[in-house]
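To illustrate this point, we now present one chain and its tokenised fold:
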Amino acid sequence: MKFGAQVSAYRTSWDDIRPVVETMDAGRWSSVWFADHFVPPNRPRSMEPQPAYEAFALAAAVASITETLRIGHLVLGNTYRNPALVAKIAGSIDHISHGRFVLGIGAAWFEREHQAYGWDFPSMKERQDRFQEAMQLLRALFHAQEPVDFRGEYYQLDQASLSPGSYDTPIPILVGGTGEKRTLRTLAMHGDMLNLDGWAGQGVSGELLRHKMSVVEKHCADVGRDPAEITPTVMVPVRLTDDEASAKRFVDAVGPNTVAGSKDYVIERVGELIDAGAQEIMFGLLYNTPEDFQALDEDVLAHFD
């Protein structure tokens, strides 16, 4: 079983991030993930001047100081960067890491950072249209053996060579999102990994994962794709604590199906997600301290080792 964690990129420092990542690399962890926002999301304007590290810069830095962890984002926003540029950066990081990079991407949702940085924030439909086209372009570049031509409504390539491209095997593309009509269909067409995000309203449960994968399977049948090619993963906010009141406050603050409680409780909830088909579980909302990650490693990950 694979376990990863989303390490906070907000209201922190590189000097805090680095020892956490080094602790993970020396432990049982399989992967490290960062969010992709340019101001801390869903916080008051007064917090916007606080640090929010750029996602690709963090990934490249982490690639250079680790040996085993796969590295990715939960998830990049498609509207922030031209997807051909995204592919170029991804190929470089994949080579820096010797094939450990995963491209996690979604259609983007946070309007405020678009306003702050002067980017267009199209309608939901256009963002989904752009996302589907970007996914097609990314997959073409990651799998290409020769220069790529691409003529889309929003993006074009003229004999574009991705060099350096994928290090060994094609860079896998993880799709973040749960929308059944567009997002999961785009995944079925062009993605390699599903990630259900535990921040999204109803949280993540075994029942929800089974349902979403059944939707993916239907889309795969429609587009002629083998659903076995798509890896189901989940991102779960977690708090390891024997203090019931603290666990309740955490769940109340974050949302339903958040995993908070004793070691035995967390192990039970993780087991439910594994039984539902999750092949990798990413934990989030850990404190940015090596001790917090080490405790989860020893108390929970070791149980599934």
Notes: Residues 44 and 112 are 11 Å apart (CA to CA). The chain has one domain: 2-304. The chain is about 40% helix and 20% strand.
